[in-house]
Amino acid sequence: QVQLVESGGGLVQAGGSLRLSCAASGRTFSRYVMGWFRQPPGKKREFVAAISRSGGSTYYELVKGRFTISRDNAKNTVYLQMDSLKPEDTAVYYCAADDGLVVLTRADQYNYWGQGTQVTVSS
Fold first, then answer.
1. Could you tell me if 114 and 7 are in contact, meaning their C-beta atoms sit under 8 angstroms apart?
2. What angle do CA 67, 89, 12 make, to 5 degrees?
3. What confidence tens digit (pLDDT) does each residue in 42-74 have?
4. How many other C-beta atoms can be found within 10 angstroms of the C-beta atom of residue 37?
5. Which residues on neighbouring strands pair with residue 21, listed in sequence order?
6. What 3 state SS string does the chain have?
7. What are the angstrom distances between the C-alpha of 39 and each of 53, 85, 94, 118, 119?
């Protein structure tokens, strides 16, 4: 019921910043819980951050203090601001959405996914 289109990935040096954007279709965006996940090379997909319908957020411990998730319901867009990037942040980053009522931190709990965008952090 919702399509997600990501942008903002790329190559950045360690210590740099990137902002990922995820544009969602439909007029019910404000009713979705939104999340960001990432899949490092050779690793399983892991939780990064999630944001509730009202703007409350939760983070993976290893990115807390460096990454910030936000949403603009008027623009049907969720963002992931990534600062102080490290080489271990290198991964394909995915935007996800769910029409449930609670913030979700497991990938199998989300019903809708973007195509993914590559983030590469060089030393």
1. no
2. 90
3. 999 999 999 998 889 999 999 999 999 999 999
4. 24
5. 7, 79
6. CCCEEEECCEEEECCCCEEEEEEECCCCHHHCEEEEEEECCCCCCEEEEEECCCCCEEECCCCECCEEEEEEHHHCEEEEEECCCCHHHCEEEEEEEECCCCCCCCHHHCCEECCCEEEEEEC
7. 25, 16, 8, 10, 10
Residue 50 has, within 13 A of its CA and on its CB side, a CA count of: 23
Tell me the β-bridge partners of 109: none
Please give the single-letter amino acid code of residue 42.
G
Q: Residue 99: which of 89, 109, 114, 84 has the closest Cα?
A: 109
Q: What is the pLDDT of residues 87-103, one digit of tens each?
A: 999 999 999 999 877 78
Query: Residue 98 is which amino acid?
Result: D
Residue pair 33/50 in contact by the 8 Å Cβ criterion: yes
Q: Which residues pair with 68 in a beta bridge?
A: 81
